[in-house]
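so im writing up the methods section and need the DUF4913 domain-containing protein record in one place, dumping it here so i stop losing it
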Amino acid sequence: MKHTDHDDPNAAVQKAVSALARTVEKLARDLDALRGGMRQAASKGTVKELADVVTHLSETVQQVAAAAAKKPGSEDEAVRSWLRLAEDEAAVQGVLSELVPWMQTVYLRYGDARVTLPPCWLWHPEVVEELLWLMDAWTAAFYGPDASLRLVGDWHDRQRPGVMRRVGLYADACDLTNHLEHAERLAAEVPLLDDLDPFVTWWASDRDNTGPAPSRDQIKAGRRGGQTTLSAVPQDGGY
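--- predicted struct ---
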């Protein structure tokens, strides 16, 4: 089965599946006819073997049709995420054993990527997340079942520059020494995590208004620059 970059691979697969289904249906009809005509000339075992073949073909068609119906990026297709990776050393080691060689042989071949990648990239989960999906997108574009020049072009033109730019923003001017003072601290927490109820009521029944007034404790806890622990609010000098 061949298709060009302008063809829809899913449509081509669906056509092939439909043709296969018609063939199996014809075989089933022929088998029914043979059951009567061959009953005298063939053994019951021979007829049963033919029936098993047709049944197996029917099941195969159903499986292929189900696989062809899945759309790339759908919920049925797993996409890896560093942020949601299993808390398992083997899983983490497996991802890094793929990612690091790919970065060496592909990503860092680009000068702008070498400039923006911080030496402390492993301390930044958001950076690893970006690099992981970029590697998987590269693999799909060059070697996946739907690999094409169009996907490769999209990777070069849009995906790689986008990741490179965001990596530079996430860790702008960051260095290994910056992580000394934050070592062993807890990860960022969502602000107001224990105060969701009034916001549920507001957005569910009164969203035309501006929302509940913050309490003194909320203001104190959320003041920029006044934190004693890490939070999701940037500590950049207060307000």
